[in-house]
Amino acid sequence: MHTMREAPEHASELFLRACSRLLAQGTEFTDTVVAGIRAEVPYYADPVLSPPDLDAMVTRGSRLGLEMHLDPSRLPDVERFTRELGLRVARQDRPVDDVLHAYRAAASAFWRGIVRTVERERLGDVHDLVHVADWVWKSVDRDSFFVADAYRLAVTDASSRNAERLRLITGALLDNGASPEFAEDAAVILDLPADGRFAVVAVAPAHAGGGAPEVPGIRLLRHLRGRRELYLAHLGEWPVEALVAGLGSRPGTRTGVSPVVTGLREVARARELAELALRTCRLDGEVARLDARLPDGLLVSRPDLSAELATRALRPVFALEPADRDLLLDTVRTWVDQGGSALRTAQRMFCHRNTVLNRLRRFEGITSLDLSRPRDLVEVTLALDTYRLLGAGAAFGALYEEAGAAAGAGRSRRPGGATR
Asked: How far is it, in rounded angstroms, from Cα 66 to Cα 23?
């Protein structure tokens, strides 16, 4: 590292004598430094923007700098001062570029003071100062780095603390709901309208890294909750369809989207609805909007009642052989999906229309349900949806296991079958 000891001895001694004289001038010298800063940096020339303690800070910094040149053991004090200055600037939310500009303006005023002191007091040949100039400006660069580094660390720390604060507030809104007072405070901190239009998105499994996706026009606040990612979406005037389109689907994940709610006080309920929508997903990459599948939401919200309904409606069908049972249920499900059209059902199942009608009549005969009667049709539809959403084991429980056991026993009693 370049040091002043590498300069000729007479140049170093000349520089130090000038420093000693400037130090003796006291505020007379520091006043010229302040004037130089105000002349070169508009921020500090503005009587409104300029910090009221500018004179005190310049006086302290100038004295420390002069003392450090005379006594190198004061270098840690200078480093401490410059780092404190960087932290102070960051906490006051002042622009660091203006501070660094002021620091170099002060250094220029200091150098001019050295040159003028040598000339005015005839301390020696002013041209000899060129041998220490490089060291002086390297010292300035070093101190400027300390200021900027401390500023950067303070801003990063403040940003991290602010991000954590936003995360905690978002989590509180999503998990616990909000009183009117908390909603108002959260709106100010999160920069959201307390009575705005919101939706919540639930994604599983969660990705630990990364932030919220970018959806044009819609602000998303991300919150991890167990193995799920939650997003609080401020829709503004955008429809929920824009949110769904912007999110897309991630491979290997499933996504549930709540209906639109009004106000931050309602986002906890929206979170519950988004998680309910997520539970209706059966395929990876699926994005489920609850408002587009409310019946499914009802079924998965009370799986015990749904299983009871499915068991009551379809119990007789489970007495059939598995292949026969599955064919009959597939026919009824396809007929429902095709809007009650036997022709379209036959086309989908590659059979004759009359075959479809015969299977439907057989289903009615086995279950004692009338598919032309609205209430019976609703019950059958819900039972089939329960079968699809919960799976046979969860939807029918012991009934499904009994049917499987009975089928196995029947196969073992057939000619050629081995008795177990």
From this structure: 6
